[in-house]
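Purpose: get a first structural picture of the assembly so the mutagenesis plan has something to point at.
Setup: three entries, given in the order below. No constraints added.
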Amino acid sequence: MSSETPDNPGIQLSSGARTWMRMKHWLGSPSPYLNLLGLCGFVAVWYAATEIFNLPLFNKLPGPKATFTEWLSPDPLYGISFYTKEYYQHIGISTWRVFQAFMLATALGVPIGLFMGWKKTFKDYTFPLLEVLRPIPMLAWVPLSILMWPGREASIIFLTFLGSFFATVLNTLLGVESIDEAYFRAAASLGASDKQIFYKVIVPGSLPFVFTGLQISMGYAWFSLVAGEMLAGEFGLGYLIWNSYTLVQYPVIIIAMITLGVIGSLSSLIIRLVGDKLMQWKVREAA
Amino acid sequence: MSAAPFESDGGKTPRGAISIRAVSKVYDPEGARVLAVDDCSMEIEAGEFCVIVGPSGCGKTTLLNAIAGFHGISAGEIHLDGELLCDSARMPKPGSDRIVVFQNGALFPWFTVLENITFGPVMQGVASKKDAEEKALIMMGQMGLKGIAHNYPSEISSGMRRRVEIARAMMNDPRVLLLDEPFRAMDALTKTVVHQFLLDVYDRNKTTVFFITHDLDEAIFLGSKVYIMTTRPATIKKVLSVDIPRPRDFRVLASPAYQRLRSECISAVHEEAVKAFKAGEREM
Amino acid sequence: MSDGICSRAFAGIKKKGRSRTFWRGIFSLAAFTALWELCVYLKAPIIGNVPAPSEVVSTLAVQLHNAYYWLSWKDSMIRIFTGFIIAQIIGVPLGLFLGANDRAREVLFPIFEIMRPVPPLAWVPVSVIFWPSAEMSMIFVTFLGAFFTVVLNIVEGITSIDVRYIRAAHSLGSSRRDIFWRVLLPASLPSVVVGMTVGMGITWAVVVAAEMIASKTGLGYLTWRGYVAGEFPLIIVGMMSIGVAGYFSSALIRLTGSRFTPWLKTR
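Result (structure tokens, whole complex):
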């Protein structure tokens, strides 16, 4: 729909200017420095506890110095750093698995959720199944998933898919049900057919919830992926964490954890950006 | 004069006569049995600006929803231009000949103003998107809605939004315009502007208007006839003909005729309001 | 649509509609089970590898008389509630403190923001290294799962409180302390409850996985053992038990939550 409505340049400009102003204001306030202080403090405490004072319990954990030396070393002790191919292979494999599973979950989950919200009969038949399966945490599916699918790759992807599928369906359904009754009435009153109501009211009206759901589902996807890879993987960041533990290559565990965190936030950022792109009306409302 | 662009209106025969005959509406026939509307009859002439006034929760909206086709009635009949719209057996259907402007507004927030206004004709397939847009822009010009076509509803003021919603309804050249307390949440100054807007639209098109409110000033200022309803179950308590000539403007508010009608209205409504209050009705 | 008439009418419709919805639900669950049984019988690919419902039922009947099965319940429950309760004891006050104190929030909150996207399970090895016993490390991971959710929800809840309530309290003569106890605390309660409910869900997921990875007891291990020992119906029994346990723990939280937030019930 945005292709037919040329962007109003006045508003675009002012929103850009507004962002810049906000940025300047933010930099002028104490908050970025306090944020930084907190993060530095955290690293300092970690460093002090592990590498300076060797506190009990903490002394077995890798400290920041050990972790970052390893991470930045061109010739790492345990074979994983910014300079090694293996590091990127693990990242690539995990990302690719999440991508496939997430896409599958979205391609199936969003239409199913929309349809459930549209046709009460369909919801009557499908919702109970969802309700029965939902309380089972996706990680409890690990053994069954390994049993069901030939090969580990398929079972890990299935597991990851399950994690995000439920969140997507439920949030989409919630999105449809949150649309104000008045919009349906207005559309019917203006002569829209049932099918037109689906495309012109249900789909755009539920989009905000759909995207909230997709962000949650992306989180779950990574969550399940790590479990799947720890238990059944041969590659990937979850496998790397577990393998480094068994091989007593502790700094690699921290490297993989931080990497997971960063990639996890990046992927949910991408979803937010796509959502903003599709929901100009929401973005401008906020501005 | 092309506010009604898509249907030939050559003869200018007045249309949109609503005949409400002994209508009752009971909610939940098996359980608690709440009688919302009781034996209510009214004859609304084609092209009449009819205002329904009554205490909160009295069943005005029930009547409007039945005309609009959102739900059925339990007894009686509603006719539109002599055709049966609904009775106890026949569920009405919503249609673009009876368009509702809702209490809290129902402009689709995900469409621009222009997309909202052209929604009706495009959905019904009576005009191509391009034609509809062209005509919408002309109509918006006539209605003083220039320059906001590509804004989203959230970017314009609430008074503007109401005007756009009325324009969206008028694009379909409805036989009846149904307004359900459309200006309820507005401040007095904005209200005077949208009132004038609605009166202009009415004077130009002479569409039948079915307008619900509990604001007496609004009722008399806008309406040709004011129907005062009782508290639940709703029936007609009193009908006032407002013999103030059109076109009207804000000066009407100071005229003696207006003052007389208003005091007549107040005494009738006050009685019902007290009854409703005692019955402990929640806000509708 | 908030008038008395309509809501009563809707309640009526719901009652009538519910029985139909109910039977449709029963039908679809029965159909699902029958289809599943059939797939196993016909040795369909993928689903055919899953143990059949009939086998599951008979295994379940045996397990219900098995002391070891109930011991698994007990162990998981202890882990869940220990981890969960510690998370509340630390998380709720911390969340309230961070929510009410801007400076503290700006210093400490980024640490949470950074740790949040790390999946809780990734903490298992670190936790095993850190804590002297496997039990403690599992409780710690469980704790983490609930902790982040609770803290983030409370902070979010407090920072989104309508400033008018605070101003109203000020103009009615409240002190800073009163405002904390009588405005911020009750106003954030709904988000505490939401955080706890979500946290409980995550807690179960984490415990199950942690038990599979690093334990010899609990429902998660029971499920995993079903796989390793080749007693495949036991996998489904384990999953069902986890589902039931998770469902009731969440229901418990929701029930308790609604007792503490009676004002949310009117709508």
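Residues 194-232 of chain A form the longest helix (39 residues).
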